[in-house]
Design goal:
five-stranded mixed sheet, Alpha-Beta Plaits, Nucleotide_cyclase, EC 2.7.7.65, alpha+beta, 11 helices, 71% helix
């Protein structure tokens, strides 16, 4: 699609693809983060159930459950949408809202549990908050900013509250939590950079593969398929039309007096003629058709689902368009064409092309610059 685009255009497309890859990874990993967040809150509440007010736990779990359902609905909508609608522009902001809401509820609830005045409860809550921070690194690794915001909303409220408490044990836990958070921040930067490079390398390799595949199948002068690529695709189209009993026509085209152009005006003039004829053919064929340069000044087209009268019209349009080509040399350019229609007696593609080639020979023998029908 972008094989002939400029370097800035290719770079912009790769950046867009990498951004889309990051979004897809984020949404795939989100199932773990959504269920992990809810499960951690349930386990913590179960452990602390006998030492805390039940109403506080119920309210916290209720709010967290509502945010969990909201995130699951978002994920369900995303994965049911067609891929064309799963754009970062549309979904990143939506994901940010659900993430901030869920992490904010988790961190706020953890802070409320902290204030129970029980050192064991405070230790357990901080331990679970640290665990949530670790899970955030793995779940939001494609987006460093999301990882940092999630950690800040979950871990910092408890840590800051402990830091201002009078007991040394509380302050020590807060200090340890801050040191851990510092290591996590450094790790998220390295991880996100590594993932960005991996996504970019994958897309650049994919782009290079497409360029190589296109070059291997394309005639460099005309931009049409080369002989090998033409027959490879033409065989598939031929079999499809044969099995579906659809009309199919072959068109052979040969430039008139091409050797005279090369001999009289040089190979550069001949190459320019080939380029212009290739451009005319590319503009004339449909996506379902197959066109290629078989060698020298000889071209072939396979017109899918096309009856003979329509193929003859296409051939005449091609012949007229070629005659209108403006060349650097004084002589004009003309072409002779042969058209043949597949019938049920033809055994293979080569038999159909041979019929078109015989018609082409008759067009040349009759004076050139004309179309003959087999």
């Amino acid at each position: 699609m972008y094989l002939h685009d400029s370097q800035p255009a290719r770079e912009a497309l790769i950046r867009a693809q990498v951004r889309n890859d990051r979004l897809q990874l984020l949404l795939r990993q989100s199932f773990f983060s959504v269920f992990g967040s809810a499960l951690a809150a349930v386990i913590l509440s179960w452990i602390c159930w006998e030492r805390l007010e039940h109403s506080l736990i119920v309210w916290w779990l209720g709010l967290l459950g509502a945010s969990t359902v909201l995130r699951l609905v978002m994920l369900a909508i995303y994965f049911r949408m067609p891929e064309t609608a799963r754009t970062p522009e549309r979904w990143e902001s939506t994901y940010w809202i659900t993430l901030v809401l869920s992490a904010g509820i988790w961190g706020g609830g953890a802070l409320a549990l902290m204030q129970a005045g029980d050192l064991l409860i405070q230790t357990l809550v901080l331990l679970f908050a640290v665990g949530m921070s670790v899970s955030a690194v793995s779940c939001y690794s494609a987006y460093r900013s999301m990882t940092l915001v999630s950690i800040a909303l979950v871990l910092l409220p408890c840590t800051i509250w402990l830091l201002v408490q009078p007991q040394t044990a509380q302050q020590g836990m807060a200090a340890a939590s801050l040191i851990f958070a510092g290591f996590v921040v450094s790790a998220t930067r390295k991880l996100s950079q590594a993932m960005e490079k991996a996504f970019r390398l994958s897309r650049e390799m994919e782009h290079a593969h497409r360029i190589a595949a296109h070059a291997a199948q394309t005639d460099e002068l005309t931009g049409l398929q080369n002989r090998r690529a033409f027959f490879h695709r033409a065989e598939a189209v031929y079999e499809t039309c044969k099995q579906a009993d659809l009309p199919l026509c072959a068109l052979m085209l040969d430039i008139d007096h091409f050797k005279r152009i090369n001999d009289g005006h040089g190979h550069q003039a001949g190459d320019e003629v080939l380029r212009q004829i290739g451009r005319v053919i590319r503009q004339s064929v449909r996506d379902a058709d197959v066109s290629g340069r078989l060698g020298g000044e000889e071209f072939a087209l396979l017109l899918a689902n096309t009856p003979i009268d329509a193929a003859q019209i296409i051939a005449e349009r091609l012949r007229s368009a070629i005659a209108d080509i403006i060349c650097q040399h004084d002589e004009g350019v003309t072409a002779s064409l042969g058209v043949a229609e597949w019938d049920h007696d033809d055994q293979d593609l080569h038999g159909l092309l041979a019929l078109a080639d015989k018609a082409l020979f008759r067009a040349k023998a009759s004076g050139r610059n004309q179309t003959a029908v087999a």
